[in-house]
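Example 422, ligand adenosine monophosphate.
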Amino acid sequence: MPEPLSNNLPGTRDLLPGETERWRLVEECARRIFERHGYREIRTPVIEPTELFARGIGGDTDIVGKEMYTFRDQSGRSVTLRPEATASVVRAYIQGAMYRGGGLDRLYYLGPMFRHEKKQKGRWRQFYQIGAEAIGSEHPAVDAEIMEMALGILDELGIGAKLLVNSIGCRKCRPAYMDLLRGELGRGMDGFCDDCRRRAETNPLRVFDCKVEGCQGGIALLPVIIDHVCPECAAHFAEVRRRLEGAGIPYSIVPRLVRGLDYYVRTAFEIVSGELGAQNALMGGGRYDGLSEVLGGPPAPAIGFAMGLDRLVMTLPEKATEEARWEPDLFLAHMGEAALDRAGEIARRLRARGMSCIVDFDGGSLKSRMRLANRMGARHVLIVGEEELASRRYRVKRLADGAQWEASLEELEQGLNPVAGT
Ligand code: AMP
């Protein structure tokens, strides 16, 4: 027996009408806030050469090591469905020689990402990210602006969140700290998990990313990088903080917040929700001054973040959900085929005025049509029966309160409110 075709792949899902409106509300809010800050949209392919992610994210990460959807295409080339977008955006920045314009390029994107994650609540294999990248400046004002913008999106959506920040040093000061950390870990790793033991060899900073309960006691005793950054990094961080405070943005310093790759420097941040339980990270971001060079481009200091659209939609307050509800302006109920033609004509004219109109094709009793209009969430019902055909005046019923009135098509074109005197 062939498998039924009615099931999607685990970790993917269909977003049905009812849900998609909530998604659009979040997307449109993000676009609005980005554009208010001068960010412009960039769209990159969802499929890229595997090498881009191996280099751009790092071979030793869980994403590249375990989670990528990688396969050979018909030409034998190894290709990967993007697990995140920063590497692609920087590739496009280099390939499109955007750096030639000079100054700061402010870019944003939204779209699906793919990671073969273990099954877990709040984690999907096809999920959606909204993100921003500011490429071309190392000024701390950019760091502060990008965090303010990220919080601005959440604020506008009514989602309560906390900003966590850290400074993770730079290529100059990190090596000495890494020696210190390796020394500590080398003294013994009793109680640490196998992944941590491996990380201690390959990239010790990643030990801080471990979520295993048994490792937390050991992690708490390790030296933290923020105590060992150079004066330049410390000054950069102080300036970021001064600007956050100047903008009235509360934040907490979390010394164990890291990004475990060499080209991630200085500012690292995360925004968490109080409402999501274990998978509470709404977004992660950081400065990646060295990435452009890793990908073969010119020096281009940059900072960015990615937020999980799936999780934003999950945390959306009830009020926003109500706003997002789809409500067609008018449901046109007809009595008989001739009335159906007229209903079609009326709908065409009103759509040209920007109203959303649903023409009922099935017909049936007025009562059943009213029920259907209600179920569809229509604001008004327009009845086209024998009498209305002849008089060219139509009965309108407002479903919220049952008010009824009569109007001609010309009056309806002026709006669906009752016309005085009818
Ligand atoms: P990352 O690219 O791993 O730093 O993730 C940035 C944000 O994307 C996270 O804070 C989450 O909100 C979201 N995210 C990452 N992975 C997933 C996933 N598998 N399912 C849903 N959201 C995710």
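Summary: The radius of gyration is 28 Å.
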